[in-house]
Amino acid sequence: MASSTMKYIFVVDDELRVAEAIKRTLDRYGFITRCFANAAECLDRLDCKRCDLLITDVVLPGMDGISLLKETKRRVPGLPILLISGHATSTIAVRAFKEGAVDFLEKPLLPEDLVRKVKSILLIDEMADPSEHICLTKTEVRILRLILEGKTTKEIARLLLRSRRTIENHRYNMMRKVNVKNTTMLVSRAIQLGLAKYDSSD
């Protein structure tokens, strides 16, 4: 990955084995990964170091992952946050989304799923950047990410706890904003805006 596209990722997990496995996986794809054993260490570095994506476990010593999510959103409002958990429940996932998480993954993490998710999140984050002249809402960003992952309207509606009509309305608004006529063109436009920067061999 070229230096101009380097992305910095913070990983918070008190299980050293898990954190190191995530780091090895992401480093292979050119990401710059920093690991922390607790929320306090992560927040200290967030105040002075660049971070493009925060990945945190839900269960942590001291401040838990949801609390870290809320505090990070207060300090760095635009930073995407991916939550992971080995004890995932629908209640935790819904709470995470309501607090602003971009996604939620269950452990054990498959390397290919993790990399695909990270690339997708960072791509959509770039598309939401005002410098690209695309003003997507947070909900539109989340829906577009799910579309890129191949989710159907019905599946997206279920995941986001919205009606199918609401999802269709958001899809229409996104197509209008990026000036395309159908979902296939929307996906192609999304790829043109950033996916080609990454190694797609996975």
Quickly name the level 1 CATH class of the largest domain.
Answer: Alpha Beta
- List the helices and strands in order: EHEHEHEHEHHHHH
Radius of gyration: 17 Å
Number of helices: 9
Q: Note the overall shape.
A: globular
Strand order of the largest sheet: 2-1-3-4-5
- End-to-end separation in angstroms reads 14 Å
The CATH topology of the largest domain: Rossmann fold
Number of domains: 2
CATH superfamily of the largest domain: Response regulator
How would you sum up the major sheet?
5 strands, parallel
Query: Strand portion, in percent?
Result: 5-15%
Please tell me the overall pLDDT: 82
Tell me roughly what share of residues is in helical segments. 40-55%
- Strand element count: 5
The residue ranges in which pLDDT falls below 50 over 5 or more consecutive positions are: 194-202
List the helices and strands and how they pair.
Layout: E1 8-12, H1 16-28, E2 32-36, H2 39-46, E3 53-57, H3 65-75, E4 81-85, H4 90-98, E5 103-106, H5 111-127, H6 138-148, H7 153-160, H8 164-177, H9 183-192
Parallel strand pairs: 1-2, 1-3, 3-4, 4-5
